[in-house]
């Protein structure tokens, strides 16, 4: 795009939206099978990947369920908390800005 009157060329740069990690936090009460189902149902993970993430959460204390734009990450976080509350599990998540 150029400004004909001044001869100055301007360029519009689109900024990509910030991305956010949905991080699952380990606790001593939420069953591993429940976490796997949450990963499959809410985060669209296949069985093998869901099990791998769940084991990471279990052994490391936390694990990334997925990386999304803020609105989608918040929606998935809310869905996770809603279903955990429905089943009376204390499963918690955090949103963390991703550098990728």
Any overview of this molecule?
With 100 residues, the protein is an alpha+beta fold. Helix content is 41%, strand content 26%. It has helices at 32-41, 47-60, 70-86; strands spanning 2-3, 8-9, 19-25, 62-69, 92-98. A hairpin with a 4-residue loop joins β1 and β2 (8-9). The longest helix is centred in the C-terminal third of the chain and has 17 residues, at 70-86. It is elongated, with a radius of gyration of 19 Å.
What are the SSEs and their pairings?
Layout: E1 2-3, E2 8-9, E3 19-25, H1 32-41, H2 47-60, E4 62-69, H3 70-86, E5 92-98
Antiparallel strand pairs: 1-2, 3-4, 3-5
Helix pairs in contact: 1-2
- The CATH topology turns out to be Ribosomal Protein L30, Chain: A
Characterize the quaternary organization of these chains: single chain
Order of helices and strands: EEEHHEHE
Name of the CATH homologous superfamily: Ribosomal protein L7/L12, C-terminal domain/Adaptor protein ClpS
Task: Based on the model shown, name its key terms.
alpha+beta, Ribosomal Protein L30, Chain: A, 3 helices, 5 strands, 41% helix
Q: Nutshell version of this structure?
A:
The chain is of the alpha+beta class.
